[in-house]
Amino acid sequence: MDNITFYKFVQLNDLPSLKENILDFCNENNIKGKILIATEGISGYLTGKKEDIAKYEEFMHSIKEFKELWFKHNPTSKFNSKRTLVKIRKEIITFKHDYDIKKTGKYLSPKELDSFYENKEDFIIIDTRNDYEYEQGHFKDAIKINSKEFSEFPKEVSKLKKLAKGKKVVTYCTGGVRCEKATAWMKDNGFDDVYQLDGGVINYGIEQG
Question: What is the value of pTM for the model shown?
């Protein structure tokens, strides 16, 4: 079986029809998981047989807004959800702050992040996840943002401006979606040389695990 995670920021219209089409396809092909859609894009995770997940990818790529949708794969022995949910939201991850997604931070591959450590680059690394996720495991010297909700991130990360001055600033999250918003906001609010771990911890585990 295959477990996939994915997200994409793209302008979406007619969310009810999109929800119905995706939900019908998943139910017809015994694919289970959770998907969030909003006018700003899509985010989700799904589990199914490999051949059914392949069908889902083909189905999604046939939709013009999702032609370049990137799926991250992890093998699994069982369904990670009991049913399929497709929900319409105001945001695919709640931020509650203005940002320009076109200004998101530079993408840093897992291999490039490792080289930052190996070459002793002058950088700081910020964990954009919540307190619980940080405590479950984090990168060496990662700075914890003291927040329970992502909407608290701007206030907390602003405290690091002095520390970040003149340095590369690397952010990471679980799958990448959170860092898209976080780095876009940071670049508009006093942070200069900003990077994000491409695909987040999930992609790091796939490529460097």
Answer: 0.90
